[in-house]
Design goal:
With about 150 residues, this protein is mainly beta. It contains one helix and nine strands.
Length: about 150
C-alpha cells in the first residue's frame, strides 16, 4: 500500500510540475490609454472667491474633477503626512485643450485651501495636476505655493 501511495504521489507531483513548468514571458505593464498633461495650475483670491486656472493639453477628457481640502488657519495640518483631498466639483469641458478656469465661491476668509485638478476619461483613468495651496487671510491678499 505504501508503494502505491508513494508512486501515486510522485506521479501527481510530476504531472503538476510539467504543467506548471514552461517559458515565462516578461511582465507587460499596461500603458495608459489616454495621454495628457495639466500644467500651470494657479489659484488667485478675487472678490471673495478663489479662481483656479490651468492649462491642459492632450486627449479630450470626459470631465475635470476639482479636489479640495479646507482647514482653519489655526488647525494643525501635518506637512509630512499624506494630504487627503476630497472631490469638490466636476466640470464638463467644452473644448479639447487649452486654458481652463473655475471659481470656488464658497470659501471662508482666514482659512487655508489645497486644490488639485484631475482630467477624468471614460475608462476612469485620471491625469492629475500637482497640489497647490492658497491661504485666505482676513484681507484680500494672496499667498500661493505648491504643496
Amino acid at each position: 500500500m505504501s508503494k502505491v501511495c508513494f508512486f501515486l504521489f510522485w506521479t501527481i507531483a510530476s504531472v503538476c510540475f510539467l504543467l506548471a513548468c514552461g517559458v515565462k514571458t516578461p511582465i507587460v505593464i499596461p500603458q495608459p490609454k489616454y495621454k495628457g498633461k495639466i500644467s500651470d495650475l494657479q489659484a488667485k483670491l478675487e472678490n471673495g472667491e478663489i479662481k483656479l486656472s490651468w492649462e491642459y493639453h492632450g486627449d479630450k477628457p470626459e470631465s475635470f474633477v476639482i479636489l479640495r481640502k479646507e482647514a482653519a488657519s489655526d488647525e494643525n495640518v501635518c506637512s509630512s503626512c499624506p494630504l487627503h483631498l476630497e472631490k469638490y466639483a466636476t466640470l464638463i469641458p467644452e473644448k479639447t485643450e487649452g486654458k481652463f478656469s473655475w471659481k470656488d465661491k464658497f470659501i471662508k476668509l482666514g482659512y487655508r485651501y489645497w486644490y488639485q485638478v484631475c482630467a477624468v476619461f471614460t475608462t476612469g483613468q485620471q491625469i492629475c495636476s500637482k497640489i497647490i495651496f492658497i491661504s485666505c487671510p482676513t484681507t484680500q491678499q494672496k499667498n500661493i505655493s505648491t504643496y
